[in-house]
Design goal:
single chain; alpha/beta; Urease, subunit C, domain 1; TIM Barrel; 2 domains; eight-stranded parallel sheet; 38% helix; globular; binds 5'-deoxyadenosine; binds zinc ion
Length: 434
């Protein structure tokens, strides 16, 4: 196969680094799906040159908790707490879903992610085969799991395993490695002990990770304590469920003992500040977790509780929320938050050998931003400060995933944006009339 090469020339490179974001001027050579060289004197003749002057290059952002097909439900039910929101609004609407609606919702989300600089997302939802097809077409990287819920019903449990195992068999390591799969037990409240125990066995058997909602609301903790006598992480620990392949979304309400368990078992955390604020769930103790050495990444959750997929916004909210919670402006400085949305996210999904930073040999998942936009001016202090506190997703000019340019100078190349928008508008109208 012929080598495809792209040279991104003379650009300001921002890379996560242990504790400190590194910034330097240079060029990056992409060969096929990988970063081949980083430096100042790259003289190869290439298929394509991208002029980096006046631009910033950084790793594509990693969104570690999402339900992307829920993009169709943007603005469907606002200003409610989680239980009412799910029981009275979201679940009734989800009963009308089919593979076509989920496909369209996934395409809509893919366009939004590409436009706002996210190249990898972690998903849990339904009709995941159609989500996989949408992601194959869109060109971004996805970790997909089926949202398993049994409420103790054995027949439903069998069905959920069949769905998730079929997803793994059909799509794990597909789309040139851009799609991987996990098990997606929804939460310790909606899943029985039998389901959770079997998820651990099957995850070991298929060598895949687990994506689960944990400790999101106080009500949920009370429900688990009432039924098991233990707090949620103590309960999962007693089932030998926890390990570094578990991505736990939310982790808002945690006892000190649970934080110790997270650290001991190397559980990976996805912090979702906007969703937690919007549903008034609470404030996750992120600074405490980071101080203990727990790996914390960032997710948006579904659009129905956010209401967008802009990880630049999410980074800023993560930082500001923690500062006001701790009444300490020094917590979650911008370089730490930049790490959370890049390398920590990659690690949280066990993808850090491939993505999360700009390094030779890693996949070319890269985004370019405009240094000259009004909200980035003056540009003397680029560093992570401008990116976390001043930028937003619409400052992204170009998005590259797996060495393929998905958007260039704000024009989406891989999908027809107008068509996706009109399909989405039609789909939600139809669903509301069902
Ligand atoms: C996979 C399942 O998770 C639901 N879902 C979406 N957002 C949340 C949340 N913040 N907490 C719990 N469940 C959620 C979806 O609506 C779907 O039913
Ligand atoms: Zn969620």
């Amino acid at each position: 196969m012929e080598t495809k090469t792209i040279l991104i020339k003379d650009i300001t490179i921002l890379n996560p680094d242990l504790g400190n974001v590194k910034e330097f001027q240079g060029s990056v050579l992409i060969e096929n799906d990988k970063i081949a060289k980083i430096g100042n004197n790259i003289n190869e003749s290439v298929d394509k040159v991208i002029d980096g002057k006046g631009k910033i290059l950084m790793p594509g952002l990693v969104n570690t908790h999402n339900h992307i097909s829920m993009n169709l439900f943007r603005g469907l039910a606002d200003d409610l707490e989680l239980n009412t929101w799910l029981n009275d609004h979201i679940w009734p609407m989800e009963s009308h879903l089919n593979s076509n609606y989920c496909y369209i919702g996934a395409l809509l989300a893919a366009v939004e992610m590409i436009k706002s600089g996210t190249t990898t997302f972690n998903d849990m939802y339904f009709y995941m085969g159609s989500v996989a097809q949408a992601i194959d077409k869109a060109g971004i990287r996805g970790v997909l799991s089926y949202g398993m819920i049994d409420f103790g019903d054995e027949e439903k449990r069998e069905h959920e395993f069949k769905e998730n195992i079929d997803l793994i068999k059909d799509f794990n390591n597909s789309a040139n490695g851009r799609i991987t799969c996990r098990f997606g037990p929804h939460s310790p409240v909606t899943c029985s002990k039998e389901l959770l125990e079997r998820v651990r066995e099957e995850a070991n058997k298929y060598n895949v990770g687990i994506h689960i909602h944990m400790n999101e609301t106080q009500k949920e903790i009370k429900d688990v304590v009432d039924s098991t006598g233990m707090r949620p992480f103590e309960y999962l620990n007693s089932l030998n469920f926890l390990s570094s392949d578990v991505l736990a979304a939310h982790c808002v309400w945690l006892s000190d003992n649970e934080i110790d368990i997270l650290k001991q078992k190397d559980v990976q955390v996805s912090h979702n500040p906007c969703s937690n604020m919007k549903l008034a769930s609470g404030i996750a103790p992120v600074s405490k977790l980071l101080n203990k050495g727990v790996n914390v990444s960032i997710g948006t959750d579904g659009v129905a509780s956010n209401n967008n997929l802009d990880l630049f916004e999410e980074m800023k909210f993560a930082s500001l929320l923690q500062k006001v919670n701790d009444l300490n402006p020094e917590v979650l400085p911008s370089n730490q938050v930049f790490n959370m949305a890049t390398i920590n996210g990659a690690k949280a999904l066990s993808l850090d050998k491939d993505i999360g930073s700009i390094e030779v040999g890693k996949k070319a998942d890269l985004i370019l931003l405009d240094k000259k936009s009004i909200n980035m001016t003056p540009d003397s202090k680029i560093s992570s400060s401008n990116l976390v506190y001043s930028a937003n997703g619409s400052d992204v000019l170009t998005t590259i995933c797996n060495g393929q340019i998905l958007m260039e100078d704000k024009k989406i190349l891989c999908l027809n944006e107008d068509k996706v928008k009109s399909l989405a508008n039609e789909a939600i109208l139809e669903m509301k009339n069902l």
